[in-house]
Amino acid sequence: MRLLIVDDSNMIRSRISRVVQDGGIGSLSLVGLARNGAEAVRIARSTRPDVVTMDLTMPEMDGIECIGHLLAMMPTLNILVVSALSDKSTAIAALRKGARGFVAKPFSDDELKMALLEVMEVR
After folding, report:
1. CATH code of residue 20
2. Does residue 121 sit within a domain?
3. Is residue 123 part of a domain?
4. Are 78 and 54 in contact (CB under 8 A)?
5. What is the reported pLDDT for 73?
6. Structural domain of residue 96, as residue ranges?
7. Residue 86 lies in a domain
8. Would you say the pTM of this structure is higher than 0.90?
9. So what's the pLDDT on residue 65?
10. Phi and psi at residue 22, to the nearest 5°
11. How does residue 71 score in pLDDT terms, banded at 50, 70 and 90?
12. CA dist., res. 94 & res. 89, Å (int)
C-alpha cells in the first residue's frame, strides 16, 4: 500500500515517515510528502496513494477541503487525520467528509501505528 503524508510541519512529516519506515507497518511504503492540501492533490494525482495522513490546519488548502478533493479523485482512499486540533467539531467534519480515523497531536509512535493499521483494515 502507498502512503502520502500531508502536514505543514516538517517535523511531523519526518516523524510519521520515520514511524512508518522503522515501525514495520507491513505493506506500507511512502510515496510522497506534501506541505499543504494543494500540494497533496498534485502529488496524489501522480502517485495514487492508498493511505493518506492528513493535517487539518494548513496554508493554501486546509485538510477538510483536501479530503473532499482526494476522495472525489479516489473514492476508496483511506484517510487518517493527524491533527493538534482539540476542536471536536473539526475532527467530526473531517470524518463526515470521509476520513476514516483520527489521531491527536502529540501522538506516540504506537498510537500512530495502531491508527494506521486500523485505517488500512477499513478497506
Report:
1. 3.40.50.2300
2. no
3. no
4. no
5. 97
6. 2-116
7. yes
8. yes
9. 96
10. -90, -25
11. very high
12. 9
